[in-house]
Request: fold
Amino acid sequence: MDKKSLKNEYDIIIVGAGPAGCSVAKFLSDKYNILIIDWSRFSRDKPCGGLLVEETQDFIKDWRLPRSVFSYPKYVNLKMIDWNNDLEIDIKRKLWNVSRRNFDYWLLKALQNGIQVFSGTKFLQFEKKRKNIEVLLEINNKKRIVKTKYLIGANGSFSNIRKILVKKPIRYYIATQYWIRHCNIGDSAYFIYDNEITDFYSWIIPKGGNLILGSALERDSNIRDKMKILKNKLKEKLGIVGNVFKEESTILSRPENKKDVFLGNDKIFLIGESAGFVSSSTGEGISFALRSGYNCARALNEDFKNAFSLYKKFSENLINEIKEKIDKSDTLSDPEKRKKMFE
Ligand SMILES: Cc1cc2nc3c(=O)[nH]c(=O)nc-3n(C[C@H](O)[C@H](O)[C@H](O)COP(=O)(O)OP(=O)(O)OC[C@H]3O[C@@H](n4cnc5c(N)ncnc54)[C@H](O)[C@@H]3O)c2cc1C
Reply:
């Protein structure tokens, strides 16, 4: 990581140092002059279940993830509970259980020398000029314009780059998590379906001796009331009780149509959740962030001048996956259809 002074001009500026931003930075050729910025200071928390699905596990299998990145238990089994239909199902999957704070920090620290990293730096605006793009940043309350040939938006569900480019926002949910101290549920994570709470789903995940209790709630719902219902049902049905020591809430995108995936245009690319790459059936987004970052880097490495058409081509498989997740989410949201699927 190179943290000297900010240059006046870069080949590529990446906004957001989450999994998508770190992935594109990792795979870009070292012949490029690259700046990656994030408004957070690392290590930082990001509300997340911290479960890595098989696609993520496969993508990072050679990256030698250190022990410190994992949480306890290191692996979790998955159980699905449907309270509308009174069903409980063991899913034959083994998910990696990580500390999201440590995972993202480790991704950032592992970047090659030569990439400039500026945390505590906010992207505000851009202006397209004939030969380049002028990017307005805010560092230590001071505004600064920096030029770049390519701008990559990897800034998640809040992406202001996407907002500038696309009028219609993606449907979003309010994902809320309560952390409960010392609550032992063994080494299983539970995905809970109950339409009294949400048409998406709720979850409980063991995390380092504590428990995360979360739910992706419809945006017009009363968050406190819904979380109360969830807590009461967990007590009544699974005997789970405990004191909440941390609450967190953020936006989670849930695409409804594959057209919600927007890759950007000519010299401005979107990757990860800012592009709409997130599963509508589970809210899983890390595998999509890593893989879309890789696709974007590959396009820029192979043909710098005409990278956008390549990025579009390389994204086809991921977009089809998003479509499959949307179809599955339609089934999971409906108790009748869900019953048929689970039985
Ligand atoms: C509650 C919850 C639980 C989840 N659980 C899981 C899970 O268990 N497994 C899974 O795979 N996925 C999960 N997800 C989804 C996953 O967290 C996201 O899809 C994933 O983080 C997307 O990665 P990203 O790099 O695109 O964006 P992010 O991880 O959101 O990173 C974006 C970065 O951009 C920065 N940023 C934003 N705006 C600006 C700006 N203007 N200027 C500078 N920097 C900016 C932010 O600080 C952030 O670091 C969950 C999401 C939520 C909300």
The chain is about 30% helix and 35% strand.
